[in-house]
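pinned: reference chain
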Amino acid sequence: MITGLGAVSPLGNDVGAFWVSLCRGESGLRPITHFDAAPFRNNIAGEVRNFQPAAGDASLARAHQYAARAIREACSAAPLERLAPVGIVTATNFGAAEYGQRLCEHIISDSGEPPEHDAPDRDETFAGLGPQWQMNWLADHMAAELGLTGPRATLSLSCASGVAAIGVACEMIRVGRARAVIACGYDELSFYAYSGLSALRAITPEIIRPFDKNRKGTIFAEGAGAVLVESRESAVSRGAAIMAVLLGYAMNNDAFHMTAPDKTGHGIINVMRSALADAGVEPDAIDHVNAHGTGTPFNDKTETAAIKEVFGERAYRVPVNSMKSMMGHTMGAAGALETIGSVLTIRDGIIPPTINLETSDPECDLDYVPGTARRMPVRTVLCNSYGFGGTNAALVLRRWEG
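pinned: its structure tokens
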């Protein structure tokens, strides 16, 4: 059961603002201000704007500020002390990348050589910067803040991280290791991370156009999405407001290439089928697919073909959308934020649009909800996420009907 949501994104810094912007089809993509983007192919990205960290979070990396805000929002209505043991799963591509960049800049002197081990400020700098650069730091920090005595884990499965975190949270509850688990996907934009992403040549020189014939790549973004996953018995017994049922999930890997997609789509076909099997539902039960939809030429074509393989002729009657068209690709946060969007789609019967889809592509010929949000009853959603290295994750959500 999903009983709590939290969001910080280029479309708003809480769940309400995020959802309103999605439904309006607004773009959260603007010129980059965090660093000088002049050397790169595109200076547009999805930055979190107008964000004020909590008083106690001022010393945290931006990525950790975003995640902490989202986690607290997701848990704001939950009596965590009564749900013990509560676990936490955090997931990210780059973690506190900006802190890592600062640490590297400090270690390497102007001459290009590391400073002496007894340099007077070395220990102080490592104490201030080093711990937050560790991927597991956020889970440990939030467990201490919230008194989470259940299991904790940290994942880094590229852009499948957010959905994978929710799947691992589900598994922790299934095997009885926790009554509730907080799953959070997060990332921040930094010169360090953007340089690596730019080297992969996945960034468009213009706007992001998922499934459009003239698509040329994606636009990266930052943010955090947090989901509170709770056992059915716990949620029902305490009278929680159940937002959706997490019916099933799946993860796998293409084992094909570190960056290039497997154009056969075998991995993403299998992960969708495995998620449906785990959920105990047939493809005909799915009312909507929340696609990975990055706007890259190969991803969109391969994902479209995979959806057709799984759904057959019915694929043309199932609305498919890409929230990345509005918020950009939020990396480790993407799957978590898109899951939140799927939960709210079920709640409100509104499928957010795919914007910037102007020219149809014969190889991408499904119903992508172009331009304007669509009102329709939605009971069951399949949410897809894929990433570099061939990581794939999918989950199935359904309306709670008592």
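why pinned: Residues 2-95+135-398 form a domain with the Peroxisomal Thiolase; Chain A, domain 1 fold (CATH 3.40.47.10). The longest helix spans residues 297-311.
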